[in-house]
Amino acid sequence: MFFERHEGGERAILVHLDSQNTEASEDPQEFKELALSAGADTVAFFSVPNSRPTAKFLIGSGKVEELRDQVHAHEADLVIFNHVLTPSQERNLERVFECRVLDRTGLILDIFAQRARTHEGKLQVELAQLDHMSTRLVRGWTHLERQKGGIGLRGPGETQLETDRRLLRVRIRQIKQKLDKVRSQREQARRGRKRADIPSVSLVGYTNAGKSTLFNALTESDVYAADQLFATLDPTLRRLQLDDLGPVVLADTVGFIRHLPHKLVEAFRATLEESSNSDLLLHVIDAHEPERTAQIEQVLDVLGEIGAQDLPILEVYNKLDLLDGVEPQIQRDANGRPERVWLSARDGRGLPLLKQAVAELLGDDLFVATLQLPQELARLRAQFFELGAVQQESYADDGSSLLQVRIPRVELNRLVSREGLQPLEFIEQHTLQ
Question: What is the rounded distance in angstroms from the CA atom of residue 325 to the CA atom of residue 44?
Answer without folding.
Answer: 39
